[in-house]
Each structure stands twice: as structure tokens, then as C-alpha cells.
Amino acid sequence: MLRLSRFLPSAFKRSFDLKESLWSGSLTFQQAVSTSAANLDENLSGKRYASYTVFKGKAALSIHPILPSFSKLESGGSRVSRNGSVMLTFFPAVGQRKYDYTKKQLFALSPTEVGSLISLGPAESCEFFHDPSMKSSNEGMVKKSLSITPLGSDSGYFVNITVVNSVEKTNDRLSVPVTKAEFSVMRTALSFALPHIMGWDQALTNHHPSPAISKPRVERPHPDSEWER
Amino acid sequence: MLRLSRFLPSAFKRSFDLKESLWSGSLTFQQAVSTSAANLDENLSGKRYASYTVFKGKAALSIHPILPSFSKLESGGSRVSRNGSVMLTFFPAVGQRKYDYTKKQLFALSPTEVGSLISLGPAESCEFFHDPSMKSSNEGMVKKSLSITPLGSDSGYFVNITVVNSVEKTNDRLSVPVTKAEFSVMRTALSFALPHIMGWDQALTNHHPSPAISKPRVERPHPDSEWER
Amino acid sequence: MLRLSRFLPSAFKRSFDLKESLWSGSLTFQQAVSTSAANLDENLSGKRYASYTVFKGKAALSIHPILPSFSKLESGGSRVSRNGSVMLTFFPAVGQRKYDYTKKQLFALSPTEVGSLISLGPAESCEFFHDPSMKSSNEGMVKKSLSITPLGSDSGYFVNITVVNSVEKTNDRLSVPVTKAEFSVMRTALSFALPHIMGWDQALTNHHPSPAISKPRVERPHPDSEWER
Amino acid sequence: MLRLSRFLPSAFKRSFDLKESLWSGSLTFQQAVSTSAANLDENLSGKRYASYTVFKGKAALSIHPILPSFSKLESGGSRVSRNGSVMLTFFPAVGQRKYDYTKKQLFALSPTEVGSLISLGPAESCEFFHDPSMKSSNEGMVKKSLSITPLGSDSGYFVNITVVNSVEKTNDRLSVPVTKAEFSVMRTALSFALPHIMGWDQALTNHHPSPAISKPRVERPHPDSEWER
Q1: Residue D162 structural domain
Q2: Which tens digits make up the pLDDT trace of D136-145?
Q3: Where is the region Disordered (chains A, B, C, D) (predicted)?
């Protein structure tokens, strides 16, 4: 029998999470402001932020979704110009229940990487490699990898990030054990997020004002028809 | 072959459920008003309530979702300041199809506890412990536990709440058998609710007025980029 | 290898389905109007209808979702006063690809019956019993049952309705074989519909105008708190 | 252990995908405009486009959802007059990471075909046949088939399209290997899309202005009741 909360009662855990997520949430926001300056201010107004964070002995892991960007088309419609992602933020513990957010490491999952994570079997692993400087003169200088490996006995996964910086000669590694229950939250949240970070929820919303204006069906092929050619 | 409705035809069961849920729904609401006073009235206007209730021989169990709270940020955006939850309400039977709602016991599932419940295998159990007075001078006075244990043969679960009050010297236990079909409703409703109680549905909705105002892409890193540092 | 469309190419099947669903859709609507008279007209304006229909040799089966009803509360909020359902409509074939919609038989699935259907294993069956006259003087006069039984080899299910009318001395039975692919559509559509027919989608939508009006957190218990008593 | 990004780092892959999807997205749009002329312009304004594309050695495969059409009813409501679909677009490689979009082949999945795809077991296959000229004088001239067959070892699927044109004496075949992670994205996106292309999301949205106008319940049967006859 799973006894999730035996040693750390969940009432306590919850209030603790609350405080921490307030704190990390506000940091995330201020950082966004500090790096993005005035030109994004108008876009940020009305924006809502939400994350899911697990705090463990040596590090914490927070995940939050990032919306896709759309570009206006001449027709007045728009299309996805940049996929959204799911950002993983790792930050190390520097004491009992104290975490240093300034030493955070980021890893943004693409839609396909999200697909890999949510289809992971109980005994399966996956690993992703990113190079932040890909295609620039610094290509290969920094190598990031994210691996997810089973804890064993269907009890969850280790989520590990490694960042090798060959310029600064640093090699950072943070590792967070994620319980089966926590991974179930991540899997459910990521499955929910996936169509949204791909923009499918918006493509599947009817933005037409009203069906009243629909014309009689014409016989020539519909632009969405596979018979057009 | 499952014969769910053999002894209690579901047409009957439905009308019965209807009456009961009306009754319990209105009680829930009045209680909310009586304890929350005037300062929440404005928030409650427009709010919609929905639950799922199973009535069994010795007790009934009702579940309903609770929205997260958002706090305004200086930028005009907002972030989750308090996660939502899924509230379980147990109330004992005091006669044939009569339940005493004043003797109810509450248990609020956090997102991670919801994750544990929806990933429960047919033969698995889970148990959660809450202390309502955690971190106050009454810490440890009241202990609540919720356990979910299989009925056997993949036919559902027992959902049990135990509340031990060492001040009032009481020890209450309510137990509700939940069929496989009813648990399937709970699992589906909770999986649906999970991203919402975490605020992810709101974080994934485009609150930007229009893509028309999007500026030409700039080369400096996007604030949501993992390459920012 | 499944060859779903070998004998009835799906391009053909689709245009056929289209015509049929247009026809059945308009009948459904007209019937709603004829039995509901003027007092519902205002509610029907703006309402959208959608169904999923499979046409087989001896009968057709169409399913469509029905929204829950909400009742206004004194606070200005509202609560579910009547659960929604998923309506199954069977109608017999009266010739090649001709169906007699006037001989239709209806069966409305409650949330728990939907839960039973979507959790059905490949070799499992379920059966539901309804009495349309339950609790009236005609109780027991008409007995409806719906059974879902596997076709075998994980290839789908038979969906059968039996209606025994002991007044009119009739015993109607309609049976529709549903392929694995068609049942997958039903399972997906019903899983999507379930939180909606329970009203949870509306309970989980933030109807508050803006987070700007949120007050400083007060120390007395939140009305939604499990610690309230 | 899966090493998805070992040989083609995903940071690189993502920027590559971005460029490609921009390009294919704009082509898709322009084509829609060119074939649909002015009468659809008003409908296209406000429409949003999103797709999911995998680029492989010999061909690429892009999928995007298409909304259902609704027809206005006399009551003011509306019903699905044409189901949506999920369009698969194949285009061949004509060099390293160069694809010829003018040689594309289209295949539109109906709801039931989507149901078949999302319920496919790891070792199962499916095949669909379409005739673009069904019921016209050109019936049988062009035969399209789509097959999905396992790559083996639960590592994904081959998605193949064959188009035989007996007038032009052509026989085109494009084949795209899809990894388990990519198929997981497709399965998740298609499961999300399915209720939308059937119009169920719109049928399950409350378009009633307010519950305040709800009348006292009348005793005659509700038009949505199964007891109406």
C-alpha cells in the first residue's frame, strides 16, 4: 500500500508548496520583465501564470507551459509561427527546504519531447539533448541533456539535467526523484498542454461570427478537401 | 456480465440522485454563505457549482472541484497564489436513503493526491494524511486519513475516511464502496479537473487581444526561452 | 491487418453518413420543437446539435450529448439541478440504406452509465435497465434494457436495446454491431462529454471578472476549506 | 534507453521544424485562398491554423485539423452539416532537408478513421481506402489508400500513402516512419481533435445567456427525455 504522506503529512506539504510556489512564481515573473523590457509589456497584461513544482532533498523541479505564437496572415487569419513548449526549471537545495533559484537550469520540451515523456512506460527511459547555441559561433560550447529514468518497481522516475559548459569549464547536474503520483500529475498536465502548445485548441475553435452567414454549398471543391487536386 | 442496475433500476436511481444532489447542493451553498460573509458575495455571483455523488447503505460520498486563486501582478498579469483542489464530502446514512449532512467529514485532495488517485491500478491502494491544525498550537489534535482500497476482482474500491480528534475524544470513520463504473466517472472527472485546479487551463488560454499587434521577431532571447542564461 | 474500408470505401461512406446525419439531425430538431412548444424557443436559439451515427444492416445507432441544467441561486451563482446525459437513438433498417426514424428507440445514459461504458474492457459486457414510468401509476409497464457485449477477438461490441411494453404487448429489439474503431470514437466522445454533462466544465471556469479585485488573504477559514469545522 | 536526439539534437531540430512549418503553413494558406476565392474570405478572417509536421529522409508528413460546418436551423440554433476531419499531407524530399510541396498527396481522416488510428495497439495495423471521384463519372479512376504499420519493437509506425491514377497511369507512394514519441503527439492531438471535428465541443457549450431565465420545471416530458414516446 502506498503511504504517500506518512512521513511528511500532506496538509503541511501543501502549505509549504504554496509558499514556495508563490516565491518561485514571482521570481519567474520578475525575471521575465527584467529581460524583456517594455516591448512585451502590453502582451503580458492579462497573461496568467501557473506551474507545478516538486521540492525534494537535493533540488526542486518546476514545470510550466508556454503558449505558441501566432503570426497574422494577409487574409486576417493567423498561423502558428513558433510552437509553445513546456519549460522544466531545476534549482538546487542550499539547506533544509531552501532552494537557490539563481542557480536554476532550464530545459524547454518541444511537442515531440512532450510526446515522448507522456508515452513513457513504467520501465522505460528517455533522454534529450539541446545545444542553446546551435547554429551560432558558440555552437557546441554548452551541452544540455535531460534524462528520465525509472526509480524501479513502478514507483516513479528520476528526472536529471546535465549542463556541460566547455567555456566556463563547468559541469552541473541536478537530479529530482519524482513519485508515481507526481509523474501522474505531470503526465496529465502535459497531455492537456500538448494540443495547446501546438496551437490546435485555437485552430479547433470556431472564430466565425455566426453560422447564419453560411452560403449554400457550392459544388466546386472546398479548400479543405483532399479532392482538390 | 456486469448488471449494474438490476436491483436498483437506474431510472429510479437517477431521479433519487437528482433530489439528493439538489438538497446537498443547496446545503453546500448556504454553508458557504454563512461562513464567508459579505466580502465574498461579489465573487460568488456568477459562480457555478457541480458535484458527483454516490449514495450507499452506510454513507454517501460527494466530490466537487474547487478553483485555484490568482493574484494580480504589477504587470497586469496574474499567477496562481493558491492551488485548487477536489473536495471529498462524506456524510453518514441515518435511515433508508436518509443522510445526515450536518455530520459530514471533508477531505480536500491536492493536485498530487489527485494524481495518485487517477493513476491507481485495479489492485493498488493509497492513503493520505491531513492535519487541519498543522503549524498552529492545535497541531496533532485532529488527524484525518483517507484510504482507497480495492474491493477485489477489479470491481471498484472502498473509499474510507477516518477522523481522530484527541481533544473531543472522537474517532469517526465513514466508508463508501465505489463501483468500477462510479470510479471511472471519478477518474475521468478528476483527470479533467486536474489541469484546471492547477490553473493550467488559464495559463494556456491566449488572453492577448489579437495577433495583429505582434511585433517583428527580435533577435534577443525571448523571456520564455531556455537559452536566456 | 484491419481493412476497415475494403468493401465500403470510406469516401463513399462519409458522404452517405453526411446525408443521413443531416436528415436525422433535422428530424431530431423538429421533434424537439414539436414537443416543447414556445416556452423553450428562447433557449433553443443559439443551441448547437452534434451527433455520431453508425449505419448497419439491420439498424442504425446515433449518440448525442445533452447538457445539464443549472438553477439560479440567491447569491447570483447557480448549481446543477439536472445532470446531462448521452442519448442513444436506435432506428431500424427498412430497406437497403433506408431507416425508419419514426420507429426509433431511445436510451439516455446517466454519468455513471457513461463511466461504465468508457471503462469497458475488450472482453467485458455491461447491461442497464430503465423504466420510463418509474414512480408513476404505470411503473413496470415498460421495461427498457441496453446491453453491450463483445463481438469477440477485440473487434468491437454489439449494442442492443430491448423494450418490453406489457400494455401494448410489444417486444422490440434492435441490435447494432459497432467496430473497434467506431467504439473508439464513442469512448473518446463520451470521455470528453462526461465532465460536461456533469457540469464540471462550467464549475471549473473562472466566471470572476478579474483577479484585480482579490482582497488580501484573511486568516479565517476559506468557505471551501476542509478545515471549516 | 531511447536516445531521441542523439544524432540530430532537438534544439537544432526545433529551429528547423520552425522554418519548415512556417513555409508549409503559408503555402497551405495561400492555396486555400487561391481555390476558394472571395466568397470564403469573410469566414477565413479570424481563422487560426496549426499543424504538426515530421520531416524524414524520403518524405514529410503534416497533419492539421479541419473544423466541422454548421447549418442554421429555423429555431435559431444550428447543427453539424458536415463533419470536420484531420488532413494528412505527404510531400516528397527532393534533396537533403528539401521537400517539394507541389507534389503533395492529401488524405482526410473521417472521425471513424481517427478512432481507428488512436486505438491502434503497438503491433496492430490499419488501412483506409478513398476514392476522390466516388459517385461521379470518374469513379474508380483514382484510388488512394493509407496504411499504418508497426515499425516493430513498439518503436513507432510507418505511415504510407499510395495513389493510383489509372487515367494518368501514375502510381505514387510516399512513406514516412513515425517514432513512438511522434505517434504519441499525433495520438494525443487526434484524441483532442476528435470531439471538435464532430462538433461535440460546441454542442456541449452552454450558449444560453443565463440560468436566470429558467422557468419552473414543467411536468410534461422534456424534449431531451428518453420517455417522450
Answers
A1: 52-204
A2: 888 889 999 9
A3: 208-229
